[in-house]
Design a protein that fits this description.
single chain; alpha/beta; Rossmann fold; 2 domains; five-stranded parallel beta sheet; 8 helices; globular; binds ribose-5-phosphate
Length: 283
């Protein structure tokens, strides 16, 4: 199998090919004078079996993914890994007249197999025509947390949607977990229901699938610190970290931000490459 790394996932694609000792194909990504994207796979490929790895963080990333898939039209088997899939949070019609954006994106992606990682809602997987598999990067986050040698650590999920993540990350690690209840008030603001947690003097890791504006994490950090938590860490699979999210988290008193390389950021200290490699190795 050959691996093509898209512009948004070069590090992860490189790490996957390093684990699998597979051929990593180099592509060129440029822009035309009018702003349209130009993509070309520079290395020759055998044409049998190719895996494209490309997160769709921005609209341009999505176009790049479509271009790479099209560039592989003559390849017998095309697998697509979308480590972070943009628009996945619009997984239903919240108001009349809205599209289910995640469905629109999924329907446009034509491949033999599609992999995502901790997609916001599993229901999105049904919208792909291809066989679609959602991978779980929380065990690698759990391993990282375990190695931090924290003081009586506790993993907290900031809302009930992330309880499964906290459970998976703590599994086999001997770490406790608990959860909070969140109500989203707007795109930028949330309200976390006060709850007494056993955090006094303990190091706490708040784990979520995505940190976007940082509003959820900042509020949770403030709540946990007011209850006497020792060091508070935030961990997520997808560090979207839009606008001033990082500043908000440090202002709220975070000790460190832990994230994976589904989106390549300075805080991407955990690699999802072993998870992807394990999945595509079987193809
Ligand atoms: C939403 O349900 C997700 O799991 C995250 O909690 C959310 O996307 C985080 O967004 P923000 O960082 O903007 O609060």
């Amino acid at each position: 199998m050959e691996i093509i790394g898209g512009p948004a996932s070069q590090l992860l694609a490189g790490r996957v090919s390093e684990i699998l000792k597979n051929n990593l194909l180099v592509s060129e990504f440029k822009k035309f004078p009018d702003g349209e994207l130009y993509t070309r796979v520079l290395d020759k490929f055998s044409g049998d079996n190719v895996t494209i790895i490309q997160s769709t963080v921005t609209d341009s990333d999505f176009v790049s993914l479509l271009q790479l898939i099209d560039a592989c039209s003559d390849v017998s088997r095309v697998n697509v890994v979308i480590p972070y899939m943009g628009y996945a949070r619009q997984d239903k019609q919240f108001k009349s007249g809205e599209p289910v954006s995640s469905r629109a994106i999924a329907r446009a992606i034509k491949a033999d197999t599609v992999y995502t990682i901790n997609i916001h809602d599993e229901s999105v997987m049904d919208h792909f025509d291809a066989k679609a598999v959602n991978l779980d990067a929380t065990p690698v986050i759990g391993k990282y947390i375990k190695n931090l040698e924290l003081k009586d650590p506790l993993i907290i999920s900031p809302d009930d949607g992330a309880i499964g993540l906290a459970q998976n990350a703590s599994k086999d690690m001997g770490i406790d977990y608990d959860f909070l209840e969140k109500t989203r008030l707007s795109g930028e603001t949330v309200s976390i229901k006060p709850k007494n947690l056993a955090v006094k003097g303990r190091d706490v890791i708040i784990l979520d699938d995505i940190i976007s504006t940082g509003g959820t994490m900042a509020q949770t950090i403030t709540l946990l610190r007011s209850q006497g938590a020792h060091d508070v860490y935030t961990a997520c699979v997808h560090p979207v970290l839009s606008n001033n999210a990082v500043l908000k988290l440090f202002k709220a008193g975070v000790k460190a931000i832990i994230a994976t390389d589904t989106i390549d950021k300075g805080v991407s200290v955990v690699s999802a490459a072993p998870v992807v490699a394990e999945a595509v190795r079987k193809i």
